[in-house]
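A protein record pairs a chain with a discrete description of its three-dimensional fold. The following entry can be read in just this way.
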Amino acid sequence: MKNTKNIKIFIGLFYLILLSIFLYLLFSKFSIEEITTYKFIQNNRDYLISIKEKNTYFLIFIFMALSIIWIFLLGFGSPIAITAGFMFGSWLGSLITITSLSIGASILYIFANYFFKDLIYEKFRNKFKNLETKFKNNEFTFMLIFRFIGGIPFQIANFLPILFNVKLKNYFFGTFLGIIPQTYIICSLGNGIEKIIENNDTLPSVKNLIFSPEIYIPIIGFIFFIIITLIFKKFFYKN
């Protein structure tokens, strides 16, 4: 238990150090006023696009490496998907995000299964005991459904399969395939934001943003996806 506590402290400190370094580098070059302006976002959008055109593979590698570290440090998946859609477009951004999230989650799964298995059993076993039979019947299928319907924060969802001793290959491919729909929708939203910035020299009104196809189509898709997952969720999580 003492080793577990030390590891948690180490991860927390490592996360804070990385965040502090990022904030220091950011605010040493720019002020808060600059960062919050539309012109700043537009100029940096152009800068990122120019980097992508010159060093596409290198940028993808760096983005994936940082994303994997982010997920390992219990970060959310949505910011990665929006950023990837913004930088790489809907399709390539989705592929990069899905791959990064799957690798990061799998590394975290291995790590947590080795160091935190007893703690996870203690915290979540009774609450999710009804899922044990489902996973035993068809591990891969239910891992895929588990990822597809969501309903649980991504960080916690990365741990829960430890309760059911899910094989690593089923965990990885179930994650990879299960998060495709929501990832593509969120990446499309990020890509839509990039297109709006590209086509507008000034910040559009809220009305124009909402009624832009680049924005409202992903939002409608997201709402539709939530409705479907809520239906699946009733059957999947029932006792």
